[in-house]
Design brief:
This protein has 219 residues and is of the alpha+beta class. It has one domain (3-217): outer membrane lipoprotein receptor (LolB), chain A (Clam), CATH 2.50.20. The chain has five helices and eleven strands; from the N terminus they run H-H-E-E-E-E-E-E-H-E-E-H-E-E-E-H. It has helices at 3-32, 47-59, 128-131, 160-163, 214-217, and strands at 62-70, 76-84, 88-93, 99-104, 107-112, 117-122, 143-149, 152-158, 167-172, 179-185, 191-201. Strands 6-5-4-3-2-1-11-10-9-8-7 form an eleven-stranded antiparallel β-sheet, covered by helices on one side. The relative contact order is 0.21.
């Protein structure tokens, strides 16, 4: 393979990783703030539980922990995440992944540290603005199902305007309402599951964690 071909392949692979990381980042935020999405009228009788989950999550102003992601072909990646309301989040993927996802309250960027490339999106044009706000309101369209069991509360979401034909199935602890894991089902019915653990809330957050390197992004 020529050097040009190798470089092209590496760039294409990196771009694919960037796209997957962006989708994952959006999905993670949607999952963490699942209760910011509205309920179908059929779910109205269960909206009290969903509202309690929403109120609980909205009350958490900072959060940090670890995540493990399982892909549809059994692939596994992981890393650490950080959240600070309003509007700030960061995902650090473990090596060998070079990806980073950062929202600083104004924009969300997807960075490839290996290739020194960045993709930038206005926060106001993504679900992050709503999902990382200081308040979470329930309305009436996106929650397809709410199931309560002794050891699990499950909420199934679907919204074409954000996820196309994909759905997200969220699982919460029924005693604490803390998020345990979620599964993203894409338009091809392929599942990607994410578990979070070692989560800590109410931590002081250094603003540098959410600093976007604009000088690098604009190169």
């Amino acid at each position: 393979m020529t050097n040009t071909s190798a470089a092209r392949n590496e760039s294409e692979t990196s771009n694919a990783l960037s796209r997957r990381s962006f989708v994952f980042g959006m999905a993670m935020l949607s999952a963490l703030a699942v209760t910011g999405l509205p309920l179908e009228p059929a779910m109205a009788q269960q909206s009290g539980v969903a509202q309690k989950i929403a109120d609980h999550f909205a009350s958490v102003k900072t959060m940090a922990g670890e995540f493990v992601q399982f892909g549809p072909r059994g692939e596994q990646t992981g890393g650490k995440f950080y959240i600070s309301r309003p509007g700030k989040i960061r995902f650090n993927y473990e090596a060998p992944s070079p990806m980073r996802v950062i929202a600083d309250g104004k924009v969300v960027v997807i960075g490839n540290q290996k290739l020194k490339t960045w993709d930038l999106y206005p926060l106001s044009k993504t679900p992050l603005k709503l999902l990382l706000s200081n308040t979470i309101d329930l309305s009436s369209k996106m929650v397809r199902d709410v199931r309560e069991e002794p050891d699990l509360i499950t909420i199934v979401l679907g919204d074409r305007s954000i996820f196309g034909d994909a759905t997200i199935t969220m699982m919460f602890d029924p005693k604490t309402y803390d998020l345990r894991q979620w599964t993203i089902t894409d338009a091809q019915k392929k599942d990607t599951s994410v578990m979070i653990f070692n989560v800590q809330t109410g931590l002081p957050m250094d603003e540098a964690v959410f600093k976007v390197p604009y000088d690098e992004v604009r190169k």
